[in-house]
């Protein structure tokens, strides 16, 4: 309840570096990386003038402007490359030849061989402590998988703090069937966004709704099991995905239990056959070797790149806030028009998962929430596919239709203003309150 | 009368002399020799021919004149001498440079003929003198046209001067001034080579050089005349050629020399013409060599041993290239980056040629594979990039060179175009672009997602009849207002046609065209813009099993469907029974 991303935003730039409105040039020699930290309020425009350069596995077009805001990125020079860039604010930028790219290539071609030699592609679980490059590795491996043949790796995000084709608080499974949009921290836009510059993706979104797994470990596992069920069925229907395999990104090890019980369940739920440990040293890989069924599993470690940035809560919240804004409003290139409607209090039925932060300890997984300003003001709510009058159990098992934002609650008039992504009446569905708030 | 006929025959044969034909010339010469009595008529015919014929044939008539004079001699020589200078001058002025040089060579043989016959001139001395004077004027006139002195030209002049001076040293080795002169010349040459001088300065150098040259030549001439005198006294009455000038025969400066190598004014020309008779000036070494080569060349080409340069020859090509490289319109090379690209593409093509991931060893997923540097993987990396050389200019996606991939690339580009048009939106009434209001969708429910295939999104070649899976919100909440612009998969019984026509479908994003063809009536229906929902829609349209129909047609068919199904079942039963 305490998380209020919009309010906690820091306006200070992350780092002080060079700044200029004039186009600047950076030349990269093959195998080096240009690492940039773009603060929230800065705008970095880059253009590849010559050579081959990629961002986390996605090759950039020549002479096309890419705009980045509030992100950390690394442009890797596959061949000598020249980049023209302009930034509105001070940014930190370095060029380094110390990357883990050779290892990533090695992993990719090992996975590619598995795809070529079997109809069952690799099912890769990526684990590691926070800030060890897990999501970056997942993104790069997905991007590479698209390149030689038109594979469609299924990207599974089990980290509710990460926003991949969704607002925060979700567990998602998304077939990566075309280019990843490098300018989005959310990897690009989902099918909910209509026409976009690149092909959008169709994610399966499961609402967890809380920020930290430990707030309700049981709910987390239930959500994940439900996701795994759908993934299993999709795999049985979809030969392309089955052959391309899964790339599973996980929360930081700190978020999971020390006995690896969640990991063990993930491995069996998704039939994982390869684990990639991201880390600076072998300690985690050693520990996993001891407790996991290594006969059926390959555990390898990919050394963490020296370019990994230690991100803080402020940065994470900013990313989550941007993901919520993108879901409703789109961005400068794809302007979406969300729809505001006024509804009476009794039109809403809102549930709330129990959380370790809640004081009352009820046996139910979902508890009804009283509709009032203190509970719902600025809240992001998940709209389920279950009817308004459905039971808590039904609501819990239901799929997610989408998200709505409670913009204003008037306790006196018993009226709310709700922002919907899709125009029309408020769906007559049960809703689940999430821990995320958004304020313009 | 006899003479008339001979002259007529002679003239008619002369008419045929349109090329340098030895047989004709011989025939004419013989006729002239045999009919000396008709000499006057024959001379008239030749003179007339020279006057009348086209300029490039005049030379051959001159050859006839020459041949007759040299073989038959008098009285032809006497007759020709009268008009020779006038004829020669007129012809010289009319013809091109090449013919002029031939004429000059011809004139030289006349002089030489005079020399060989010891003072007995072939033609009258006045005529020859007049021609010589004319030629001197003509060539000096020519020289005025010569371009301002250039450094290489001056260097050549210095070389010649040095040669002259050397020649003098060989004759009077005691003179110390001559050695210093050579030193000075050498220095001057070095100066010229080192520095670039203004044209005026070069002009000055040239004029001074010429002055020195003229002096030098005079001195040399005097010396040689003395020498000649001594020799003449020694070999009195000897008819043989002066032994000191064995090469004088070949030393025939062509007009080409005059054009390209300045021969230091009239002095040198007059010397080269006059002194051929005996007092030979030392011909400058380069020009002597040149003339030797020239005469060799002529001899060879006469024998047919030298072939003209063909169009396809390397020499021709070189000349053309030289010309075109001088031209302002130089061919611009493609930019370096493009050349690098091509090189990279070719390199990576060959580095992964015949490479197959399946057959590559050391690709087992294990710690060693991940950590170790693997040369096979370094090769394989190309497969992620230049292996597919065609890169989409707007998103960077790569495509290969096979037919399938090329088609995919075209479809991909088409898709970019369509989607960009859609994003950009339509132009408003005031000309400003109005951003299309984006159509938004809900997430799919679990079952829909499980059955979803991403081909629906990615395929760029989907037919317009394919549907796009959209969230089935209506299924569970049929009473809310969404059915207005959501596709309704459950076909509701339609009350009347008016209601049916109102049904519409939002043009799906994946549709390539803005129109659809109803599979029932085969009519093409184009999209209209619906202001209320801000979308392009197909009016009177329903979707069923991925196909779009006119809703009126569709419902008519549906009504008949049960009956048809019954009919089909009956047919099947009949088949089984039979």
Automatic annotation (TrEMBL), chain A:
Keyword Nucleus: yes
Binding site for ATP: 33, 131-136
Gene Ontology process terms (BP): mRNA 3'-end processing; tRNA splicing, via endonucleolytic cleavage and ligation
Cellular compartment(s): Nucleus
Listed SMART domains: AAA (SM00382)
Top-level lineage group: Eukaryota
Signal peptide limits: none
Gene Ontology CC terms, in alphabetical order: mRNA cleavage factor complex
Keywords of this entry: ATP-binding, mRNA processing, Nucleotide-binding, Nucleus
Principal location: nucleus
Domain AAA+ ATPase: 120-298
Function per UniProt: Required for endonucleolytic cleavage during polyadenylation-dependent pre-mRNA 3'-end formation.
Quaternary structure (record): Component of a pre-mRNA cleavage factor complex. Interacts directly with PCF11.
Family of the protein in this entry: Belongs to the Clp1 family. Clp1 subfamily.
Protein name (record): Polynucleotide 5'-hydroxyl-kinase GRC3
The organism of origin for this protein: Lachancea nothofagi CBS 11611
UniProtKB/TrEMBL annotation, chain B:
Organism of this sequence: Lachancea nothofagi CBS 11611
Residue span of region Disordered: 231-261
Family annotation (InterPro entries): CID_dom, ENTH_VHS, PCF11-like, Pcf11_C, Pcf11_CID, Pcf11_Clp1-ID, Pfc11_Rna14/15-ID
Gene3D superfamilies: 1.25.40.90
Signal peptide stretch: none
Parts forming coiled coils: none
SUPFAM superfamilies: ENTH/VHS domain
Molecular function via GO: mRNA binding; RNA polymerase II complex binding
Biased composition (Low complexity): 238-255
GO biological process: mRNA 3'-end processing; termination of RNA polymerase II transcription
Stretches assigned to the CID domain: 2-139
Stated name of the protein: LANO_0E11078g1_1
Gene Ontology annotations for the cellular component aspect, listed alphabetically: cytoplasm; mRNA cleavage factor complex
CDD domains reported in the protein's UniProt record: CID_Pcf11 (cd16982)
